[in-house]
Amino acid sequence: MKIAISSPDGKADSEFSGRFGRCEYFILMQTDTDEWEKVKNPARGSRGGSGPQVVQFLANQGVDVIISGRYGPNAYTALQASAVEPYLAQSGTPLDLLGAFREGKLRKAAGPSGPGHHR
Amino acid sequence: MMRIAIASGKGGTGKTTIAASLAQTLSREKSLSVLVSDCDVEGPNLHLYLQPDFKDTKPVFQMIPEVDNETCTGCGICADVCQFNAIVVLNDKPLVFPELCHGCGSCTLTCPEAAIREVPVKIGMLMRGPGKSQINLRQGTLDIGEPQAVPIISALKKWYFPEIPDLEIIDSPPGASCPVVEALRGADYVLLVTEPTPFGLHDLKQAYQVTEELGLHAGVIINRASFDEKGVREFCLNHDLPILLQIPLDQQIGEGIARGKTLVEIFPEYEEEFIDMYEDIKKRLLEC
After folding, report:
1. B85 touches chain A (CB under 8 A)
2. Of the options 3.40.190.150, 3.40.30.10, 3.30.420.130, 3.90.1150.10, the CATH number for the domain spanning A2-108
3. 3-state SS of chain B?
4. Measured between CB atoms, does B92 come within 8 Å of chain A?
5. Can you tell me the ipTM of this complex?
6. Which of A108, B242, B247, B267 is the most buried (most CB within 10 A)?
7. B259-283 pLDDT per residue, tens
8. How far is A13 from chain B (nearest CA, A)?
9. Number of inter-chain CB pairs under 8 A, A vs B
């Protein structure tokens, strides 16, 4: 399974980023091999619609699960159309959050987290 | 036909009051046929002064792509060409975000399977009709929750009355972004209305930059002139911007406007000032 976690600096051992569509990096983790890599968020600087762009990008990377702090309405709509499952976290490093996810301690997002960011 | 646009960076400087007063003066005293276009489509309120009978109305539509999933192969070209991130392809199926779409048609044109057609979605209304002092008024209104003012303004500017007026006065939205650019485009002269506060000056600079970018002639009206106008004066001097009119801060003007009266209805003596300003603008346009 491949997990993407939003990150401000691309480091697996520093605090994750609560932002989804406009975070700086994603940490991509392979749960079976424990290998990880960082990727820059290609939609970070877009004028609008970054949420769906990121979902498309991560889906193309073969991601199965995303862990972030909140998902806007457009991002959530795109997530529903994809096979990617969004989970919510409040704090922790990507390594902590991977552990929490494995232990079943993270909650799946049941809807968009508040209004859009770009209206 | 001459076209004068009235703009300001800051909101609430008096654009609409000046637009209505100038229109009334020139229609009544110079017998010009005047058309006023209220381009402040997020909050058009010039009609409160001119009380028109909006006989004609017309909805404005934007064309939004609709994908035929039977024909679509999920190639993703539509998502690649979209400059506004309005389409993503997930599980080989395009997903359209209508509120991000600018209606440019690129996806429809480039789809190799011709699987996309465009369907109209209403985003606002246009209205036009005769108002007070034989002035024709047209206005656009953006529907609540719709994000794009520019298509409404551009549709409004193309929706002409059958008869061509002697003068068109454009009441621009406040600010210095795309809707203002769309409203000012094609104007012969731009009146920048400001007030002598740090806020008025700051936003005047932005509005002036828009006129510079568009290569439009501009002059300044200082409204609520009362205290230190030095900042505005210096800026105008340094940028060769003529100050065409000053309207003092006056409680009676404020009270009159609060009752829905234009400046020339409150103080008819301003008619002379508006006529002088109009003649001054005509002269300046002839000289350049």
Report:
1. yes
2. 3.30.420.130
3. CEEEEEECCCCCCCHHHHHHHHHHHHHHHCCCCEEEEECCCCCCCCHHHHCCCCCEEEEEEEEEEEECCCCCCCCCHHHHHCCCCCEEEECCEEEECHHHCCCCCHHHHHCCCCCEEEEEEEEEEEEEEECHHHCEEEEEEECCCCCCCHHHHHHHHHCCCCCCCCEEEEECCCCCCHHHHHHHCCCCEEEEEECCCHHHHHHHHHHHHHHHHHCCEEEEEEEEECCCCHHHHHHHHHCCCCEEEEEECCHHHHHHHHCCCCHHHHCCCHHHHHHHHHHHHHHHHHHC
4. no
5. 0.83
6. B247
7. 999 999 999 999 999 999 999 999 9
8. 31
9. 42
